[in-house]
Design goal:
By secondary structure, the chain is an all-alpha fold. About 25% of the residues lie in helices and about 0% in strands. It has one domain. About 10% of the residues are buried.
């Protein structure tokens, strides 16, 4: 609908890990009317589960993904640490409890 209306599609992300960002990039690359480099905060993230930072973590553009699959490699040790942290602390809520239900007990 956006393409038919001559409108651009923007990716809005805050706090997405590289795995989700890679999946979104694949979807964006299928669209004819995407605004490149819009609303991505990958450069501010710490503790991602990928072996290498995604391209937009260090620059304004990503472009085509040439590698197989999603084009990223999950670091299993980092994933294990993230899983252990989830088990001990629960879901990470970047905006705190203001917009979420009370924390799990």
């Amino acid at each position: 609908m956006a393409a038919l209306s001559d409108m651009l599609v923007h990716m809005h992300a805050h706090g997405d890990l590289g795995l989700a960002a890679a999946a979104c990039q694949h979807i964006l690359l299928t669209l004819p009317n995407v605004a490149a480099g819009s609303q991505q905060t990958a450069a501010m993230l710490d503790g991602d589960i990928l072996a290498e930072p995604i391209p937009i973590a260090t620059g304004p553009r990503w472009g085509r993904i040439e590698a197989l699959g999603l084009g990223v490699e999950v670091d299993t040790e980092r994933l294990k640490i993230a899983h252990e942290r989830y088990l001990s602390d629960g879901e990470f809520r970047p905006y705190g409890d203001r917009f979420d239900s009370p924390p799990r007990r």
